[in-house]
Amino acid sequence: MQTSTPSNPIISICLQDKSYPPRLLDLYDPPKTLYIYGDINLITLPMIAIVGSRRASAQGLENAAIFAKSLAAAGLVVVSGLARGVDGVAHKATLGSMGLTLAVCGTGLDAVYPKEHTGLANAISQNGLLLSELPLGAGPQAFHFPRRNRLIAALALGVVVIEAAEKSGSLITARLAAELGREVFALPGPIKDPLYSGCNRLIQEGAKLVCHPNDVLEELPILEKTLFK
User: Fold this and answer.
1) Which of 43, 134, 165, 215 has the fewest C-beta atoms under 10 angstroms from its C-beta?
2) Residue 35: left if φ>0, alpha if ψ -120 to 50, beta else—which one?
3) Could you give the CA distance from residue 48 to residue 64 in angstroms, rounded to a whole number?
4) If we measure between CA atoms, which residue out of 130, 70, 64, 118 comes closest to residue 97?
């Protein structure tokens, strides 16, 4: 991908900078430096995270697109992790509906993972924002992605889990969000479908069951004040 242009370079934000996203300060270990590429103004806007399985079903991918389009149309920045499956569809659907999306990356911003999302990353950099705490040159490592997930959880007002199996990384994001006092939403599924076992467990643990994007919007009383202040 093109890592920078004269008008739109990769920039770094330090913890002490006024432009540092205040919601990340809720973390016990906020990144000392963030690297961003795209529209820096997005980090001041209200965000909703959409996450789910990398191997989602056709119905799960359709649900991801429906929720992303509707929540973006309501004025929320759709945040996800640029992964295969639900993440990628959430980003694409948001861009396709002229909404705003932010991708938190598990690599440095001069690398894209997975490689097939290089074009998507370029599109987000031109019409949204890419963000990472990892320096340029950092490639994909297994331990990078749980750390990426904590940034997704902290940035958002809430996390919507579209489809997730019992050991899905999306559950890490959801549980971190709950610990941070964010809203957690999950779409229910058939009790014998392993693709929904994680979502169903989240609901058992107190996540809000949602079947329509309006169910999410109705649970965000802060939204009206944030969007129309």
Assistant:
1) 215
2) beta
3) 13
4) 70
Report which of 72, 62, 90 is spatially closest to residue 173, judged by C-alpha positions.
Answer: 90
Q: How far is 59 from 102, CA to CA, in rounded Å?
A: 23
Reported as a single tens digit per residue, the pLDDT across 55-67 is 999 999 999 999 9
Write out the H or E segment, with its range, that includes residue 79. strand 77-80
CATH code reported for the domain at 11-227: 3.40.50.450
Sign of torsion over alpha carbons 142, 147, 151, 157: positive
3-class DSSP state of 196? helix
pTM, rounded to two decimals? 0.91
CB atoms within 10 A of CB 117: 22
Question: Which burial class, exposed, middle or buried, applies to 180 when counting CB atoms under 10 A from its CB (0-12, 13-18, 19+)?
Answer: middle
Task: Tally the residues of the chain.
Answer: 229
Tens digit of pLDDT for each residue in 127-160? 999 999 999 999 888 778 989 999 999 999 999 9
Query: What residues have CB less than 8 Å from 12, skipping those under 6 apart?
Result: 33, 34, 35, 36
Q: How far apart are CA 50 and CA 67, in angstroms?
A: 8
Angle at 166 between CA 148 and CA 184, to 5 degrees: 55
pLDDT in tens, 106-118: 999 999 999 999 9
Q: Which residues pair with 37 in a beta bridge?
A: 130
Burial of 97 (0-12, 13-18, 19+ CB in 10 A): middle
